[in-house]
Structures are given as C-alpha cells and as structure tokens.
Amino acid sequence: MKIESKVCILTALMFLLSFPLFTFATNRVIEIEKDSIISDFDALVKIIEDTHPDPYTNYGGKVFFHKTANSMRRALETADCLTLQDLYDKSSEFISFLQDGHSYINPPAVRNVSSGSDSIVLIKFMYGGGSLIVNAVEKKGAHLIGSRLTGINGIPVEVIADRVAKYYPCENTAGKFGFLSDYFRTVAIYRKLTGNSDGTLSFQLKTPAGETVSYLPSVIPGKAFSGTELARTPQTKEFPSGQLEWRVVDGTMIFRLSTVLSRENFAYQYANGWDFYGDLKNYYRMSGSEMPSDTLAAINGVPSMSETFMDMLSEMKTQGVRNLVIDLRGNGGGWTPITLPTLYMMYGDRYLDTDMSSHFFRRVSDLYLEKINTTIEEFNRRNGTLLKTGDYLIPEEMEDCRSIEDKREGFINSAFCSDEIKTKLRSLNGIPLYQPENVCVVTDNGTFSAAFHYAFYLSRLGAVVAGETSSQAPNCYMEITPFTLPLTGLSGSVSNSMQVFLPGNDSRSKEFTPDIRLNYDEYRDCGFDRNSVLMKLVSLLKKDS
Predict the structure, then answer these.
(1) How many whole angstroms from its chain centre is CA 311?
(2) How far apart are CA 475 and CA 497, in angstroms?
(3) Do the bridges between strand 476-478 and strand 392-393 make them parallel or antiparallel, or are there none, so unpaired?
(4) Which of 26, 236, 242, 446 has the greatest CB tally within 10 Å of its CB?
(5) Residues pairing with 326 in the sheet
(6) pLDDT, tens digit (0-9, with 9 covering 90-100), for 354-365
(7) What is the pLDDT of residues 438-491, one digit of tens each?
C-alpha cells in the first residue's frame, strides 16, 4: 500500500452546502450600493483564484476564467439597481463553472419577494431509478405520489437538469437531478431553469399507472410553509433514523449515520482553536436536542462515533448477527478521520494493508491557513515542508515498508478516538473485533464528501454499495474553506484540495454507480416507501442466510 492512502483528510461539512429555502429574515428588497456589490464580486473572484486547487480548467483556461468574470462584472455594472439577491445569483453562476460541490455561496437571508425567491412550489421529488419521483405534494395532488417528472412547461426533464449545472454547483448527473429533489424549491429557481420569468409553472408527469398528466402546483409564501398540510410517500418505522442509531431488523443490523460528525471532531477543533461553534449548534439542531450553554458540556453531550460503533459490533458478535447495513443516505459529510477506527474494528490488519487508492493534493492558501488557525511558518514546521502560500502539498508516493506492527501502532496513535478506545483497539492485535459476513453501505444523491469517502473505503474492503448514485464524484475538488465577502457579508466556501480516487478513464470516476440499484418498478412494488432500498436489502440478505 502507499503511505498517502492513510493520510487523514479533514473533509467538508455539508451543512453549508445545502441551499436553504426557509431562512427568512425579512421580505423587504434591500438595494445595496452598486460599488459594494461589484467590489464583493471582485473579492469572490480573487478568493477562488487564490484558494481553489484548479480555478482555471473548467472555464477553459486562465484567460477565459477572467473573461467570464469580466462578463459577469459588466452585467452587474450595467444593471439599474442591485440587491444582495443579484450578487448571489451572479456569483452562483460564476462558481458553477467549477463543477465543484464544495465551492458555493450561500443565499442572502433577505429574500426578494417579487422575484419569487421567497415563494415555495408545493411539489417535491426523490431521485430514484434514474427518475425524479413525486414523494411529497399538497393534498390536492395526493393522487400523483409516485409519478415521474418528464418535463416542466414542455421542457424535457433532462434539459432542465442540464440547466441546473449552469447556475448551481454540480459534479455529475446525480448532482443535477439531486438538486431538483429532496427540497421544496422556490418559484425563482424554477423560473430560472425554465426561462419563464413570470408565467405559470406546469409539471408534466407520468403516473404509476402510465398516464401522462400536467399538474399546476400551488405556490405559497415561504413563511406559510410550516403550516401546510402535505401528502407524502410512506416511511416504514422499523428502520433506525436517528444519528448513530442502530437496530436489528429481520436478522440484519442497520446502522444509521446521518452526518459524519461526532464528539471526536468537535473535541479536536476545540483543542486546536478552530471556529466550530456554528457547526456544533447545527449538530444539536439536527439532532433535535437542546444544546448545553457550557461549550465542553455541549461537546461531551455529542455521541462518540467509535464508541457507538464498537458497542454495535459487540452486540452483533454476541447475538451472532451476520449482516450489517450502514445507511448513509442524505449524509452530507463531516470528518472522514472519525470513520477510520470503525474500519479497523471490522477488518483489522486487512484494512491497514488495503490500498484505498485515495490521493489528495492540497493548495495552501491564506484562507486555508486562516481556517486551521495557523501560519505558513507553523504549517511548514509541522509538515516538514518549505511551501509558500499558493503552493501545493503533494504527498510523496512510496511503498510503506513498515512492519504490520508499526503500521498498526502508527494508525492507532493518530486515530480520531478516545484513549479508552485506542486501548481497546490495541488489544485486538490486528484481529477484527467482529467482521460481519455481509456488509452493505447505502448511498443516495445526498451522500457527499466524508460520507462518500466512508462508502468508497467500505467498497474497497468488499462491501456492497446499494441505493442511488452519490452527487459526489470520486475524482473531484474537496474540503470547504469558508469565506465571507467584506462589504455585503455574503458567505460561502471554496475547495482547497483535489481528490483522485480512480483513474481518469474509469467509467465510475465521475459517477460511482451502486452495485444494487432499484428500478422504478421496484420502488413501486415497495409502495414508494422512503426506505424501499432498506426493505429490498433486508429481504435479499434474509434469502441468502
């Protein structure tokens, strides 16, 4: 194996990647001084150029990077008046050229009502079997649950999906279709994608019975959404749904990981002086728990990934449960290093001797150094390098000639887990705590960043990947680097690394297609249940046992 395959990369947090639809500070349209808007657009261009590992290629080269920036700048200069929404729209369009899910700008909290950015279209989809399937709709459209979207305003859905990539960051087809699923989108988004600035939105659908219909969904203000009664696809309750929740279902252990965040990463961030308080608040908000006011108490109140997984494996061993399904659907990422001890728990020395083919090339920028709270001098001291800002940290490729005992000790010493867990890992002496006979990992278009890493590493160790294709490409840009524009305060992120998991000519280097993927008929046979893929897997594993 190569040494670099075990480098712990601190990967992106998807909380920031989602495009929030329900954050409304006010409905007023606030105009901003044009000079401030243009200055912040220029600042964004510089941030991308100085921080991104490859800012030019997808624009057609350095000249066309600046040509595109200049064209969009001119569009802002010639506008009669400008709002924060205008800056967001133009910035998103510029960033979309990167085809990078870790580079984005967040929409303003102040919404432009006249543009429809505050108005919700009451129909939602899931991405399944290569189609967008209605999984939530207002009550009057309940009969359309399970219908496939074929077009909007007569424009084929494939064309609409391709247009998504013009305005929003997408890495592959799953990302394009995924953007149209999972959330109730706004009128402004659909108008942009259809080119219809103020007309009716008509959705063309093919029902489960094969009938083709057109549907005009209702549109409501965002602030009224929470009180709206909706028809939704069913969801079986037998499967675990909470973060780090696990349960045996019909002879198969189901382990739910909804985010790759746990006590370990927050403790590390706290110890190293990183800015993590917002992420900790988001974690508690996601879990539905009240966050303690004391920071250390809040960190200690977050469950431990390694402790929970070890408890789960121990229970499987005691009960003789042979099958494990790790559910990563909708998991937007977090910190890859907190997953690695679980691989050692299941596979022991075989994990340490497996080449994960994971290569990361990081650009060391001022913004990245600010993120990790260090200086270029300290960074060089820690890494034994002589880099300048703007240079790349490129790990040397060399065979790891260490003995297995040295590999094991090196891994455990650097593992993201408590000293107590490290002691237990050492006691295994390279033997798995428990290796399930069958391991499956479930992904969907929302499985991203560190969650995708976990799925990929599991697949390298023999796990079967099931579900839907991730919107994360195996070969892509990686890791958030937060920024805030100085005058308008709009925030976002830009990647700082290049990730290469597969050869460029590999068919799965952009679309990591699962081994088991349900087709439309199989979803229909499961009643379009949101846990259809888990139902299918449990059934298959029961037959094989």
Answers:
(1) 27
(2) 11
(3) unpaired
(4) 446
(5) 255, 441
(6) 998 889 999 999
(7) 999 999 999 999 999 999 999 999 999 999 999 999 999 999 999 999 999 999
Phi-psi label, residue 210: left if phi above 0, alpha if psi -120 to 50, beta otherwise? left
Distances (CA, A) of 10 to 307, 336, 450, 465: 20, 6, 8, 23
Distance of CA 389 to the CA centre of its chain: 28
Q: What are residue 340's phi and psi, to 5 degrees? A: -65, -40
> Which candidate, 40, 116, 103, places its Cα nearest to that of 72?
40
How many whole angstroms separate alpha carbon 284 and alpha carbon 291? 6
CB within 8 Å of 352: residues ≥ 6 apart? 1, 6, 344, 404, 407, 408, 411, 430
Residue with tokens 């993120």: 371
CB atoms within 10 A of CB 154: 9
pLDDT at 182: 77
Neighbours of 493 (CB within 10 A): 26
Please state the φ and ψ torsions of residue 360, each to the nearest 5 degrees: -125, 135
* Mean predicted confidence (pLDDT) in 321-347: 97
- Token reading at 132: 């967008």
Enter the DSSP assignment of 26.
B
Helix (H, G, I), strand (E, B) or coil at 6: helix
**Residue with the two structure tokens 């910035």:** 91
Note whether 14 and 448 are within 8 A (CB).
yes
d(CA 261, CA 263): 7
The residue whose two tokens read 């490129």 is 394
Mean pLDDT, to the nearest integer, of 200-210? 96
Q: Using the structure block, give the residue that is written with the tokens 């990361």.
A: 360
For 24-42, how does the pLDDT look when each residue is reduced to its tens digit (9 = 90+)?
334 445 567 899 999 999 9
CB 493 within 8 A of CB 365: no
Rounded to whole angstroms, the Cα distance separating 77 from 282 reads: 37
